[in-house]
Amino acid sequence: xxxxxxxxxxxxxxxxxxxxxxxxxxxxxxxxxxxxxxxxxxxxxxxxxxxxxxxxxxxxxxxxxxxxxxxxxxxxxxxxxxxxxxxxxxxxxxxxxxxxxxxxxxxxxxxxxxxxxxxxxxxxxxxxxxxxxxxxxxxxxxxxxxxxxxxxxxxxxxxxxxxxxxxxxxxxxxxxxxxxxxxxxxxxxxxxxxxxxxxxxxxxxxxxxxxxxxxxxxxxxxxxxxxxxxxxxxxxxxxxxxxxxxxxxxxxxxxxxxxxxxxxxxxxxxxxxxxxxxxxxxxxxxxxxxxxxxxxxxxxxxxxxxxxxxxxxxxxxxxxxxxxxxxxxxxxxxxxxxxxxxxxxxxxxxxxxxxxxxxxxxxxxxxxxxxxxxxxxxxxxxxxxxxxxxxxxxxxxxxxxxxxxxxxxxxxxxxxxxxxxxxxxxxxxxxxxxxxxxxxxxxxxxxxxxxxxxxxxxxxxxxxxxxxxxxxxxxxxxxxxxxxxxxxxxxxxxxxxxxxxxxxxxxxxxxxxxxxxx
Length: 518
Known about the structure:
Elements: H1 2-20, E1 25-31, E2 39-40, E3 46-47, H2 49-60, E4 63-69, H3 72-79, E5 85-91, E6 100-115, H4 121-126, E7 131-136, H5 140-146, E8 151-156, H6 159-167, E9 173-177, H7 178-187, E10 196-211, H8 217-230, H9 234-250, E11 255-257, E12 260-263, E13 277-280, E14 288-289, E15 295-296, H10 298-309, E16 316-318, H11 321-330, E17 334-340, E18 349-364, E19 383-387, H12 391-398, E20 402-406, H13 409-417, E21 423-427, H14 428-436, E22 446-461, H15 467-481, H16 484-498, E23 505-508, E24 511-514
Parallel strand pairs: 1-4, 1-5, 6-12, 7-8, 7-9, 13-16, 13-17, 18-24, 19-20, 19-21
Antiparallel strand pairs: 2-3, 5-10, 6-9, 6-10, 11-12, 14-15, 17-22, 18-21, 18-22, 23-24
Helix pairs in contact: 2-8, 2-9, 10-15
């Protein structure tokens, strides 16, 4: 651990030295007034988790932070100008997706409608009625609220005013977050005991963001990479531990998950109806998109077939592993595939049915002269390329090595090819599949040792999930895998894969086995 810390510190020092030799840089950091995350002080300074995080990232990149407090509505207007600056606490919405570079995730927050009376969206629609909903001016929830035909949005200058309007009966409810309600009601000494969450919209993510312009692309890429590296350092852990106690004093559900501060939890709705979410991480061959954007692959069709067998009609969503783990920790009834079943995850999920089986191994370049049979036998502080958010990333760090995380497996493989990593931690099947699409990039790779045999699953989040739904899905999976439709499904995809990769695959006891398992 000490060696890892020294290597990471050295990385930061090298970056600081590199950028110090260039012209001195500074960057404006816009920050709205948000309790705990960004609080305006009487002397004009700003304190809070988001501000400290932004400062730390800029410092690691050799850039001086010029923190500028602004009311949130003005902050958003300033961001629209496309200047060379960054801002904290920007909600990542579909409307904003292409307007910003999303440098680093800050929070995952449960948002919804809070008021004194129940809110029934379906009944409002049937009765052709609407509700007046308050929100802070310029906040992303103002736009989200307008997407509900049943809501009339009323904007106020502060969240205190928006909540106060509900308490005084001027509006029916407020569109806010669990944590936000707790902190504003306490700060403003408001009696909010009559207000509770009456409708859950979703989990919303906030980011440190930068206006998306051609002029900003280079520095945005640089800051994104710096943020990823910083999130793996002890300095980031120290930052989280500094602010987490303050957050948990306000909301017991506050927690850090995969580098994101998670606030709140989504429970079942008022009618206790389970609405499962189905999420996958795009993986070559098994879960990927066609040229038209449609999900395809053996794992996708298998899960779709199980859902049909269970008489469930649910869209399959895609997300990075980081977001998948946050969603599954905060929501009940989240279905995830294809998730490797590991001892660390055993108690966090219900394991419905296996999908693939593979051997996970460590690979090196052909000219490598050393030998090892385990991660612990590798030289301490070795650079090991892994997929960001994958379980192998934690194994690498636990063994005292430096993880080199990337967003896609192709990028992971290239780290070994380009000499940016000493080792590659991948599966035998994955290496074969990825390398088939990279021409000669993997020429001369060889396996150093096999770490373990592992199986991926369709799994279900555990906290608060519906046991009846779980039993239904397990029965559906078992029933489908005993059918002729299942045989036709895996036969079709094995024939397709045999034309795309040299990797040997076969079906065995309801599982697609990749390669020869030792």
